[in-house]
Amino acid sequence: MLERGRQVAAAGDCAVCHTVSGGKVNAGGLAMHTPFGTLHTTNITPDPETGIGRWSFAAFERAMREGISRDGRHLYPAFPYTSFRVINDADMQALYAYLMSQTPVRQQAPANQMRFPFNQRPLMAGWNALFLQRGEYQADPQRSDQWNRGAYLVDGLGHCTACHSPRNLMGAEKAGSSYLAGGMVDGWEAPALNALGKSSTPWTEDELFNYLSTGFSDKHGVAAGPMGPVVSELATLPESDVRAIAHYLGSLDGEPQSQATKAPQPAETHVSLSNGERVFKGACMACHSDGQGPKLFGVSPSMAVNSNVHSDLPDNLLRVILHGIPTPATRDLGYMPGFKDSLSDRQVADLAAYLRQRFAGDKPAWQGLAATAAQVRANPGSH
């Protein structure tokens, strides 16, 4: 049961959200910036004073399915109980047993800083009445066991919609045609997953499996930002579970374009493709040589098929250029340095414009690259 609980925790990314960088696993305190204020994740170790050590299984299950804490306070949906409510009883019990078997850590989470009226927790009862559905996952008898397993992991434990579906003005995930249609998370674009076979470089089920289990696809690039820790957890799951996720996502057939949106940027001026080419050759080409050069730090991702270069938004590419990938999703990927201390915003803009023109010439040029680079530099977020 404890091993099953460990797998449930890994699929649910418990440690990803409930652990601060360099801190004790699951001791909480990670800041989550939302449009409504800043939340800090709670301590879910079995410490009796600051964690869940005094929680009965009934209290734990109510929090997971209904978003209500042991003391009766409503939880905010940044904790994805709207997805976790579909977890089956056996997995819920295994998760509880696993968390209660871990080493207690005494650590109080910092106070939340939510703006009025969002700091009034009783209002969440009305939010739940509008947006929280009830019941465990119900298998589709017309689909295979593998498809149903993938749907259960994507919509329940994996809570993929929390990042990859857009949200309405009240912070609820949009459904219907917006299901897994893309979103923005902590400054990163979470791309659409509802039409992977129709993307600029179509994903196959095998490529998606490789990406989810290793953090790298030679047809699409390397997992970075918030997706890196997710892949780190997925890599510890049984291969059959990761394949089920890939199988389910590969079966979706929605609209190919992402619905991720951001504030409009001013038109780009004085971008220099020749300067961008010089920066690429001097700083990037040694590693990103389309298989022609050495693999200096692990893998050598091709820019020609990189998903970030073909995206409607430049944000992810700019974040990786400026802040690098200091903690790769899996050990074999190697490390990518950031260039925020060696390249100016104008040089980064020129480089991004050059990459877009050379490797995604059929796509419209990005606008406001220098301004976006300045914003990304000032707000590194998760990387």
Structure description:
- The protein has 383 residues and is mainly α.
- It folds into three domains: 2-131, no CATH class; 145-251, Cytochrome Bc1 Complex, Chain D, domain 2 (Orthogonal Bundle), CATH 1.10.760; 273-378, Cytochrome Bc1 Complex, Chain D, domain 2, CATH 1.10.760.
- The chain is built from 16 helices and seven strands.
- It has helices at 2-11, 14-17, 57-66, 81-84, 89-100, 124-131, 145-157, 161-164, 205-214, 227-234, 239-251, 273-284, 307-310, 315-323, 345-359, 369-378, and strands at 31-34, 37-40, 113-114, 183-185, 188-190, 216-217, 221-222.
- The strands form three sheets. It has a three-stranded antiparallel beta sheet, with no helix packed on it. A two-stranded antiparallel sheet has the order 4-5. A two-stranded antiparallel ribbon has the order 6-7.
- The model has no long low-confidence stretch (mean pLDDT 88).
